[in-house]
Amino acid sequence: MALRKCKDCGTDVSKRAETCPQCGAPLKRKPINISCGGCLLLLIGVMVIGTMSLGDGRFDHYQQGSSEPETVDPNEGVRGAGYEIAKRIVTPELKAPSTAEYPWGTVEFSVMPDYEDESGAKAGRWLVRGAVDAQNAFGATIRSWWEMILLRRGGQFFPVHVQFEEREIYRASGYL
Q: If you compute the radius of gyration of the chain from its CA atoms, what whole number of angstroms results?
């Protein structure tokens, strides 16, 4: 006969027993019985949550119920571009690059005056700041700060100046 220990008193008890003969503690859990109605409610809940997580309700060019184009936000994509560019440029500067984590909540930007080149062509310009958490030379995780100036021309973002912990680590020639 297969035995197991009672979790309450430690007595050896048959695996088939529902209660401990020594202390009376229940040994078998009753199975959870989900009815068809319960399954249907669970399925509907999963569908609602899934639908809510598919998008943020915004449309790129048209508002729902309107045939008029939506006003395009000139700052759209700035945070994401700064975040991705920082990961490429800042990470190699770290003592332990493989430990780098860039907390999205720390990334912020401010609008700067447009950049105008010699021919008079203008480009949007932003100052983007954020943090990186990574291990230092002693293995302790510390938070360090980066900032960059981004330009956007033809829908593409590119960095013209990047600082890490107040030290310049990248500068594109002719833009500042």
A: 29
